[in-house]
Write a structure and sequence with these properties.
Structural class: alpha/beta
Largest sheet: 4 strands, parallel
CATH superfamily: Response regulator
Number of helices: 5
Radius of gyration: 15 Å
Amino acid sequence: MAAANRPFNVLFLCTGNSARSIFAEAILNKLGAGRFHAFSAGSHPAGAVNPHTVELLEKHRFPTEGLRSKSWEEFAQADAPHLDFVFTVCDRAAGEACPAWPGQPMTAHWGIDDPAVATGSEDDIRKAFFTAYNQMRTRIGLFVNLPFDKLDRLKLEKALYEIGAVR
């Protein structure tokens, strides 16, 4: 697993690409700056980033400029970035037939409940977004601190799976 002269490219997938995968893209691009370049996409993109997602990222001082809801098909094209890792962050996307990712990136499932479908009071909805944000922030913190240069592919796959189980 080597991205010798470039950062690792990481794609986060969910269904709507409006909350969880957007959180992941923004968080990894900041916490992994210089070592990782994150992207996000959805199998059925919502067409817009959820306003609660933007609000929470800005509150925690994560850049939001350029974040957009987009199809995973963008990353299956010949001119797409070479992907080193692809993570599904929702159960629905994990169960769908994904495009064939050029270069055989490592994959893992990091399922998180979708805050975009939360119901109840405004406080309930904000809590759902904060929970998803916090889980993603924790997992990405673990991911960026993995000793990539010391892990063979099998150990790295195991570590990625274990990160996906962290709540």
